[in-house]
């Protein structure tokens, strides 16, 4: 019976150590990502697919940015906003 208690205690300590290690790894990765601010640079993209920000400046990225800006400009060309706020209905 005494041997069984030692095995349970050892198993619990190993499980606790594994859980603590997993939490430490998770916390250290997210903390590193928060500490790495990347300034926005005109005409460049920021890639987060690796888990940390990487500034990219390729021809394909520039073409994609230009196409997207053109689409946004075309979509917003006919949008207007009135100077007056929308009246709220009274009950």
Give the strand tally: 2
Radius of gyration: 27 Å
Instruction: Report the span from N to C terminus.
Output: 76 Å
Please state the structural category. mainly alpha
Major sheet attributes? 2 strands, antiparallel
Residue share in helix: 55-70%
Mean pLDDT: 85
> How are strands sequenced across the largest beta sheet?
1-2
Strand content: 5-15%
Order of helices and strands: HEEH
What is the number of helical segments per DSSP (H or I, 4+ residues)? 2
What does this 3D model show about the protein?
By secondary structure, this protein is mostly helical. The protein is built from two helices and two strands; from the N terminus they run αββα. The protein has helices at residues 2-34, 59-76; strands spanning 45-47, 54-56. The radius of gyration is 27 Å and the shape is elongated. It starts with a helix and ends in a 15-residue tail after the last helix. The mean pLDDT is 85.
Q: Which helices and strands occur, and which strands form pairs?
A:
Blueprint: H1 2-34, E1 45-47, E2 54-56, H2 59-76
Antiparallel strand pairs: 1-2
Short description:
With 91 residues, this protein is mainly alpha-helical. The protein has helices spanning 2-34, 59-76, and strands at residues 45-47, 54-56.
Labels describing this entry:
56% helix; 2 helices; two-stranded antiparallel ribbon; 2 domains; mainly alpha; single chain; 2 strands; 91 residues
